[in-house]
Design goal:
This protein is α/β, with parallel strands linked by helices. The protein has eight helices and 21 strands. Helix content is 18%, strand content 17%. Strands 1, 2, 3, 4, 5, 6, 11, 12, 13, 14 and 15 form an eleven-stranded mixed β-sheet that branches. The protein has a four-stranded antiparallel β-sheet with strand order 16-17-18-21, with helices on one face. The longest helix is centred in the middle third of the chain and has 23 residues.
Length: 508
């Protein structure tokens, strides 16, 4: 059941003038688009120093706005980062926000106040397009994929959604549009299981000869869709099944269509791309264009998607008064389950930039992400900011932009950092808290990085990723950004301060 939305007061500014298409009503409210990439590393964009790939559309965005160099996702994996971004609550406060299965029930509860709720209460049209990975339906494993879902994004403040339930490497491999399988094929009813296969259905493990598009390197060898092995088991789908090479085209087209439909009113678009997550199988017009193979080609495809959004805003006269915020959900990873030569063709490219670690890791490479803000009507072009920031604050910050009122208890960990987000100041957040796939929490300040003790292993064998785990406290002086020398034993006072921060946050 849809929630009621609290009324909000709007702060109107002369800087918010909107150049609309001819004949359309002018509005002082800025449109807001969040472009949220998947597994895109700090060093994967040419404006962040990438050496073997060019990203002209993202580079243009950075040149026309602010490029941030010290922004942190809340977690080193997808589901918890996305949960925290949209709710303003640290994912580690709950025990059900780990990487979600494709048949997970809704992790964000309809009773929670979300970023979409906030924009909707301010009179915005709202949409989520692309990767979701936060669960659908009322409970895990009980969804009937052949009927309207009883709980979907409409219950979280989104007027429209066209999404992937989880990730491209997980079943079900269909798009969900407004709570129902898009292009549903009644001749091929859908069944999904994360426990056992369906009789007679081939798998990547038993039928590798059917993996004609990508072969698995580790795991990802259960149901086969479009010649690619997946996680989980699925039967049916028919003409509703996606083709991986068309995913970027499809979600980008739906994002552009939403912008066109709502060009005469303020809108909020959460555009979460599939790129550069595995399985990396871009459209043929991108394949072979990068010396880094399919992962590099996927970065080019991501840049194309960004370019289409920017071109649409230009065409409709909306660019000046549209705030575009581009970032990623966590750090990069190379071999994440498929033989796509991401490791072999890497060369001197550094996906995580100067940081140690990758996706999944407690080291900085797991959570330091690119972040760019462009809003020509209010944000001067050509800026760079090294302010310490966290994505947890973007909900309250954008709410401050609108003068939004939040229900009591909403966005409990989010702070108003709008001035920093818009380049009005370079004030650091006092600290940011990070969360690894091993559930190790870290505290990062301007100078220090503390990783709490964790008994987990030091390496995730499949993707060959350092976890950052250690049974001992770790403290690093971030004036040398690569976390190489643990100085915890030399600075017991700093370690105590960091531990106190975590304790206070835990009890809050």
């Amino acid at each position: 059941m849809r929630k009621r939305y609290l009324a909000v007061s709007l702060l109107l500014s002369s800087a918010c003038g909107l150049a609309c298409a001819e004949g359309e009503q002018r509005s002082a409210k800025p449109n807001v688009i969040i472009i949220y990439a998947d597994d895109l590393g700090y060093g994967d964009l040419s404006c962040y120093g990438a050496k073997r790939v060019e990203t002209p559309s993202v580079d243009r965005l950075a040149a026309e706005g602010i490029r941030f160099t010290n922004v942190h996702a809340v977690a080193a994996t997808s589901t918890p980062s996305r949960y925290s971004l949209l709710t303003g609550e640290y994912a580690w406060r709950r025990n059900d926000t780990d990487i979600a299965a494709g048949n997970a029930g809704m992790i964000i509860r309809p009773s929670q106040f979300t970023m979409a709720d906030m924009f909707k209460s301010a009179g915005y049209a709202t949409a989520a397009v692309g990767k979701w990975h936060l669960g659908l339906g009322s409970s895990t494993g009980t969804q009937d994929w052949n009927a309207p879902l009883p709980a979907a994004l409409g219950d979280l403040g989104f007027d429209y959604h066209y999404i992937m339930a989880a990730t491209a490497d997980r079943v079900p491999c269909v798009f969900i549009e407004n709570g129902f399988v898009a292009n549903y094929d009644p001749s091929a009813p859908i069944e999904v299981s994360y426990k056992s296969n369906f009789p007679g259905e081939p798998t990547g493990k038993d039928n590798p000869e059917l993996l004609f598009n990508l072969r698995s390197s580790h795991g990802h060898d259960q149901s086969i869709v479009n010649g690619i092995g997946r996680i989980g088991y699925m039967r049916g789908g028919g003409t509703a099944l996606w083709k991986d090479e068309n995913i970027a085209d499809s979600i980008t087209a739906h994002a552009v269509s939403f912008i066109r439909r709502h060009r005469g009113e303020p809108f909020f678009l959460y555009f979460a791309t599939n790129d550069v997550h595995v399985p990396r199988f871009p459209h043929e017009r991108f394949r072979g264009n990068s010396p880094m193979g399919l992962r590099g080609d996927a970065i080019l495809q991501f840049d194309w998607s960004v370019g289409r959004i920017l071109e649409t805003l230009d065409e409709l006269g909306l660019a000046d008064n549209t705030l575009v915020l581009l970032s990623s959900d966590n750090g990069p990873v190379l071999d994440d389950g498929y033989q796509d030569q991401a490791v072999e063709l890497l060369g001197d490219h550094q996906p995580a930039g100067p940081w140690r670690g990758w996706k999944y890791s407690a080291f900085e490479g797991g959570t330091v992400v690119p972040a760019i803000v462009r809003w020509p009507a209010s944000v001067p072009a050509g800026q760079e900011s090294d302010a310490l920031m966290s994505q947890i604050d973007w909900l309250r910050s954008l709410g401050s932009l609108l003068g939004a009122r939040f229900p009591e208890g909403a966005a409990p960990d989010s702070q108003d950092r709008l001035a920093t987000l818009l380049g009005k100041d370079t004030a650091d957040r006092p600290y940011v808290i990070e969360f690894s796939s091993s559930h190790a929490r870290s505290v990062r300040t301007r100078q220090w990085k503390y990783i709490e003790p964790n008994e987990g292993g030091s390496l995730i064998v499949g993707p060959n990723v350092e976890t950052g785990n250690s049974p001992l406290p770790q403290l690093y002086d971030m004036r040398s950004p690569y976390e190489e020398v643990n100085v915890a034993s030399e600075h017991s006072d700093i370690v105590s301060e960091m531990q106190e921060i975590l304790q206070q946050e835990q009890e809050r």
